[in-house]
Specification:
Blueprint: E1 4-10, H1 16-19, E2 28-32, E3 38-42, E4 45-50, H2 57-67, E5 71-76, H3 87-105, E6 112-114, H4 123-136, E7 141-144, E8 146-147, E9 150-151, H5 155-166, E10 171-174, H6 189-208, H7 211-214, E11 221-223, H8 230-243, E12 263-265, H9 271-281, E13 286-287, H10 303-306, H11 313-328
Parallel strand pairs: 1-5, 5-6, 7-10, 10-11, 11-12, 12-13
Antiparallel strand pairs: 2-3, 3-4, 8-9
Helix pairs in contact: 3-4, 4-5
Amino acid sequence: MTVIDVHTHVFPRISRAEGRILADADEPWLRVHADGTGMMMSGDREYRPVVAPLWDPHRRLADMDALGVDVQVISPTPLMFGYAADPARAAAWCDLVNDRILGFCSADPERLLPLAQVPLQDTAAACAAADKAKAAGHRGVHIGNHVGDRYLADDGIIAFLTHCAHEDIPVLVHPWDMLGAERMPGHMLQWLVGMPAETQLSILGMALGGAFEKLPSSLKLCFCHGGGSFAYLLGRADNAWHNRDIVRADSPKPPSAYVDRFSVDSAVFDPRALRLLVDVMGAERVMLGTDFPFPLGEMEPGSVVRNCPGLTPDEQELILGGNARRFFGAGTPATRKDG
């Protein structure tokens, strides 16, 4: 069966001078070392050590071969989002990043499928960037789960998602800029606790805030990191909806009624957790995701799916590749417009 990983990242070679297209301070850029390692930079600050497959497509393809992955969906690293910038600068930055991602994926367009980023802080600019990216050959857009204190039930973001639905542009949502950072200073707790919480907050915020009632059902929406805590706390949320009017004030249905309105990746790292996720979401709404090439990702892509108790061969095929073929058009040429 074809193995398609929908949650992988890239940080193209971008110099510090190019990073200043976005910001005059704390600009994102990539420092590459002579030994083949690298460092994601935020201005003068070292943000995270990284390895060559993050920016070198040939190393990426070699790793995919070694790991048994046929296709990756390639999205920008969240440090690159640039949502705090002036919209005009952010739009120019997105043009640069999206062009570099296309260049990265040109090493093998059938195996490396690009996702674009957009200046989500400005709805009109984000819609224009998404259209431009689709015309250039991107398979969808990759967005953060919030812009400052604006989450996905915000009117402006709903307008952007509605545009994506009408234009058949898939949307991959990634948690970032995690809440409670001051309470989680060590041990990568922002990633271990904050990321699942951010994703849970986003999905529940959409359900209880009435966003799914406003959005077209045709929207292709996928949340990274297994939907965070959502599947595991859904009973708690439904119980609250049924018993407290303040919880259901803006939503005519309980949160469980909306599980058919979005997908999630499989990045939960435990077959027992994946079993519950599939029970809640349905096998047709879970796609393989590993967070490649970061060290908190799944080291053996697909192993959790293959070892998940009770999954049928057909369900494994859906999760490992079939759902992604439908969602992102994997295995079909990207639509490009000349000029």
